[in-house]
Design a protein that fits this description.
By secondary structure, the chain is α/β, with parallel strands linked by helices. The chain is built from 12 helices and 11 strands. It has an 11-stranded mixed β-sheet, sandwiched between helices.
Length: 333
């Protein structure tokens, strides 16, 4: 089966150009069916003649801007993201990729596609760099601001399935984010979630913020409010450290010489911190596949988001999630 991916061509901050370029780059590396959704007269001139027969275009003359309310997305049926999600709902595509309004993408994917059997709430996943030169899976990072203990417990199961299928980890280790490793730490919700998760295969207990980055666990679970704060704070720290390093180098002739010698190291570090290497954040727990990319995504980010969507579909993560949630419900009972 050739995977078919619907790509919102209009949603990013820089218009359709990087999205079309990213789609073409993905087609050069992998065989799949690409559907670009958006304004045909803006998309078509960006597609080289050799790829015009490899990409189909679905016309959509409305674009949901970042300043628009996510709640308006359901009413705007002619928007590029609405039509892209609807292709998945109708079975005309297996997954959707969008660098547009993240709230609109998540709302439409949840409400139009629906949740997997047994899923109380979908969660947004991000992959954080760690000391082991791998990635730590963090969820939720923004889909659910307020969570109950049963939601966190389900996030743990879904995150474990994702790490197993997408990263080929036999038994992923799962930690619950708290203000200390002791069993008694955390608020009332995390304490109750801890009780629910005790006995789950791979659950190691509470973890602290630093554990996200030291690679001691594969999956870290929290609510979307905390997860988003962790994500945005981490981006800010990385940006500040990069700025300070550049500033110190600029002011010191000795440092300039050292920087020239360390050029390869800096290049590798930049790659580790670059969101484009990951591509986007999957919304997990919905029927189908939705990858939410950064608004500032370049062509590399779009290419990797498409690869992520294809891999998600190919591995059958959703079937694994449904089976795992059913098994976990029986264990808790």
């Amino acid at each position: 089966m050739k995977v078919k991916i619907a790509i919102d061509a209009m949603g990013g901050d820089f218009g359709p150009e990087p999205i079309v370029k990213g789609t073409i780059a993905a087609l050069k590396s992998y065989r799949f069916e690409a559907v670009l959704v958006g304004k045909r007269d803006e998309i078509l001139p960006l597609i080289p003649s050799g790829f015009k027969d490899k990409i189909s275009i679905v016309e959509a003359d409305d674009v949901i801007a970042m300043s628009d309310a996510a709640t308006d997305a359901l009413k705007r049926k002619e928007s590029s993201i609405y039509k892209a999600v609807d292709l998945v709902r109708k079975g005309e595509a297996h997954g959707v990729v969008s660098a547009g309004h993240s709230g609109a993408t998540m709302s439409l994917a949840t409400l139009r596609l629906g949740r997997l059997k047994g899923v109380l709430r979908p969660a947004l996943i991000t992959m954080m760099p760690n000391k082991k030169k791998k990635r730590t899976l963090l969820l939720d990072v923004g889909a659910n601001v307020d969570c109950k203990a049963e939601h966190l417990a389900q996030f743990a199961v879904m995150g474990s399935c994702y790490a197993h299928d997408m990263w080929a980890i036999n038994i992923p280790t799962v930690g619950l984010l708290a203000n200390g490793e002791e069993d008694t730490k955390g608020n009332e919700v995390t304490k109750e979630a801890f009780k629910r998760l005790t006995g789950m295969k791979g659950f190691v207990g509470n973890v602290e913020g630093r554990d996200i980055f030291d690679g001691s666990v594969d999956v870290v679970v929290c609510d979307g409010f905390i997860g988003n704060l962790v994500l945005k704070s981490s981006e800010g720290v990385a940006s500040t450290i990069t700025y300070l390093i550049k500033d110190y180098i600029r002011k010191s002739p000795v440092a300039i010489t050292g920087a020239l010698l360390m050029r390869k190291v800096f290049k590798l570090l930049k790659k580790e911190l670059d969101y484009a290497e990951v591509g986007g954040a999957p919304l997990i727990g919905i029927k189908g596949c939705a990858i939410v990319s950064h608004g500032k995504s370049n062509s590399k980010a779009i290419k990797n988001a498409i690869f992520q969507a294809i891999h998600y579909v190919d591995t059958g993560v959703n079937d694994h999630i449904e089976a795992a949630l059913e098994s976990e419900a029986k264990r808790e009972a």
